[in-house]
Structure formats: structure tokens, C-alpha cells
Amino acid sequence: DIQMTQSPSFLSASVGDRVTINCKASQNINRYLNWYQQKLGEAPKLLIYNANSLQTGIPSRFSGSGSGTDFTLTISSLQPEDVATYFCLQHNSWPTFGSGTKLEIK
Amino acid sequence: EIQLQESGPGLVKPSQSLSLTCSVTGYTITSGYDWSWIRKFPGNKMEWMGYISYSGSTNYNPSLKSRISITRDTSKNQFFLQLNSVTTEDTATYYCARYSDYFDYWGQGVMVTVSS
Q: How many other C-beta atoms can be found within 10 angstroms of the C-beta atom of residue B68?
């Protein structure tokens, strides 16, 4: 199976900061990488699909980049409502997940 | 609006079977997509368990293949998870979700504890 290494596991940043979260695949997954946001007690929400496509209704401050084995989720200007856990998912083969990044406001 | 809702017992004894239902509203499960089960363990590790397609074919995580079965009732627009011979390591929050290159609609999740 394809292993997804996500970093950092915890992130504390100030409102307005640029935030980046990374996922590294154990082998080439092309652009078959999605990013999700999960707030406490809620279902996960799809943010980015196929590495860099913004899901409908998601604010433009969220963006994704990368291909092959290295991927990044960027929040250009952190907002209070962005407090959540973020995780990546690859679907080049049967789906596997990153370990998650817990994002808090400083 | 498409909604998925998991239901089932919150406590299962070791060696028994875990059975969950996902009820789907706002979309007919035979119209398209793959209908998946995913679980999140304590400590936040997530695992895709398998899916049943709109046509009724199934695909399972190889690590679970000997213990898992996903079926459906098209008349009720529901699909089901059965996981056999559970251990305490199957304690997790179980989610159902719609899949086609990405999981776009998820249920709220149901917490299942395996304990005697």
C-alpha cells in the first residue's frame, strides 16, 4: 500500500498568517491527492481534489499544489474558522490517508 | 441535498460481528458512485475499509478482506458494513461516504467500541 507521511502533526499560527501543510507519498501518485478539513464533531469536508482543484464552495484562501510524491496545502490568510484537523488522501491505488495536522490559532 | 447517516450499535463484544447501516437521502445509490466505509481510530489514523459500487460490485481493503462484507438494500437506499471477528483494535469511529476520485459526501460518523 502507499504510505502518506503528513507534516506537521500540530500547527499553531496567528490570524492572517500563511499556513502550509505537507504530504509525502511513498511512491508516485501523479496528482491523485485530496485534502480534507475536519472540525470537531463534524464530518470531513473536501477542500482540494486532484492536488490543486478547489472544491465548489471552498474559500479561495485554500490552495493545493504538488505532483508525484510531494504535495502542499496552503491557507493564504488564516481565519479563526479554519481551526480544524486537516488530512490528505491519495487515490492512485486503494485510498490511504495522511496522519492529520491539527491547526490551532495562536 | 445529499445526506448520509450511519447507524448501529455503539458497543460490540470481542469475537462478535460489527454491523452498521448507512442510509442515503438525496441520491439513489444505484445511479452512480462508489459507496464506502472509512474508519478513524483513536489517535486519528484513518483507514478506507471498502466500497460497494452503484452496480453492486465490491472492493475491499486487502488488510480486511477476510473479515469484511459490504452489501446493500436498494429498495431502502441503504448500504451495510459487516466486520467479523472484531477485536479491541476495531474500536473506531465509522463513517460512510460517497466516492468517485474523492469522498465528497460523508456521514457524521458513529463511534463503535469493542469491549467485553
A: 18
